[in-house]
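This part of the workshop introduces the protein records we will be handling. To make this concrete, we reproduce a full record directly below.
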Amino acid sequence: MRLNLNQLAIFAQVIESEGFSAASQVLFLSQSSVSKQVQNLELALRTQLVDRSGPRIRPTLAGEVLLAQTKEVLALAEQAVQAVQAAALLRTEPLVIGSTGTISTQFLPSVLHEVRRREPAAQFNLVVGPADQLAEALEEGRVGIALSGGPLPPGRYRSERLAADDMLLICPADHPLAGRSISPAELEGETFLLRECGSQTRRQLTDLLHTWELTGARTLDLWGTEGVKEAVRIGLGVGLVPRRSVRLELRHGELAELTVHPGPERRTLTASWTLARPLTAYEQLLIPIFQEVARAEAEPLAGLAAARA
């Protein structure tokens, strides 16, 4: 038996409006047409769905069962329509994605690759900036969805943690302290490479220096994770980076990890979406893709961390 989606929608509206006349006004149909559609549905299911005996229409027991299922079916149908519309938009309108600097180079390319695999004609506009700027863009609804290397400041948006990544203090491969477990005091005299103002990594390293009682240490400001990595490689100092960003360099012995106790806390890859406006169907498609890509990349990262332990 094939149920008619239109009949189900009319039936649900009759129950919600508690009458054929009221439902007909909402649906812009004649009362007789609305009544006929419900009757045809009852004939198809061979059971009475509405109680017509009182002043208001009420569902029978069978009608209540059908109503619950109908709401789910109609919701799924609406999701299907939105998904199709979103897929069509991929060909005509660019998708705007916000991201912090490190995530834009280390995780976001995998997301874009997956979107492009599903829809080759997809277009993207990226808004890359510090966490506080992303938070402001989400607050105002200028960006619908964004990725960051940790929770954003509280605001009018929701967030979901996708995956965790270790934060490493890295040094040149030939550094005298490389490969050893050291105390913060042994880092005295080192130059610490700080990310740009507004960076979550900068704040984390600054907090660590305070914890390690090294607030008077020499520092050097640089831009981006790649800038920190290159400066470390040529011996300008030591820097804090996500493990994700130095997988190859650690594997090939180009950089080394400084194991300090207490060490830096792990950081979470976080997706955030605005509450200032409804997400477009296009933007809603991104959330499950974020989740899938994060799951796919979590296993290699976990394996690398175990190998280094």
Q: What stands out?
A: The chain is about 45% helix and 20% strand.
